[in-house]
């Protein structure tokens, strides 16, 4: 059974940092592209970032480019999202998503507020 479990969210002040983690199990993590997707209150889903299977290539939405960094540790079956210089508009539920969007984590809340 595929499982994706996010952690590391919470409340942070504007300008602060958080690191999200996604623990993966039930599939061969090291062979799959992985994504982060978010949903802000009252808004639709927004793609945030993608990383390829070996972690060499990554892409980002313009809204987070230069502030967020996606990475992975295939030995630990874990995906990460380092979020720096956070803004109130980054407030959302963040989801870890397996390539093809067939499997999603339960989501983790990130709130950026003073």
**DSSP helix count?**
0
- From the spread of the alpha carbons, the general shape counts as globular
Amount of beta strand: over 45%
Query: How do the strands line up in the largest sheet?
Result: 2-10-9-4-5-6
Low-confidence stretches: none
| Multimeric status of the protein | single chain
Helix/strand order: EEEEEEEEEE
What is the strand tally? 10
Give a description of the structure.
- The chain has strands at 3-7, 10-12, 18-25, 34-39, 45-51, 58-60, 68-73, 78-83, 92-98, 108-112.
- The protein has 114 residues and is mainly β.
- The radius of gyration is 13 Å and the shape is globular.
- The N and C termini lie far apart (40 Å).
- The mean pLDDT is 97.
Topology:
Blueprint: E1 3-7, E2 10-12, E3 18-25, E4 34-39, E5 45-51, E6 58-60, E7 68-73, E8 78-83, E9 92-98, E10 108-112
Parallel strand pairs: 2-10
Antiparallel strand pairs: 1-3, 3-8, 4-5, 4-9, 5-6, 7-8, 9-10
Give a quick summary of the entry.
With 114 residues, the protein is an all-beta fold.
């Amino acid at each position: 059974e595929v499982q994706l479990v996010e952690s590391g969210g919470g409340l942070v002040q504007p300008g602060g940092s958080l690191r999200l983690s996604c623990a993966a199990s039930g599939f061969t993590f090291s062979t799959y592209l992985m994504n982060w997707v978010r949903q802000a209150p009252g808004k639709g889903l927004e793609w945030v970032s993608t990383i390829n299977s070996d972690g060499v290539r990554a892409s980002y939405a313009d809204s987070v480019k230069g502030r967020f960094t996606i990475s992975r540790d295939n030995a630990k079956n874990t995906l990460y999202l380092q979020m720096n210089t956070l803004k109130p508009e980054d407030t959302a539920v963040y989801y870890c998503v397996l390539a093809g969007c067939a499997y999603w984590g339960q989501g983790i809340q990130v709130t950026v507020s003073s």
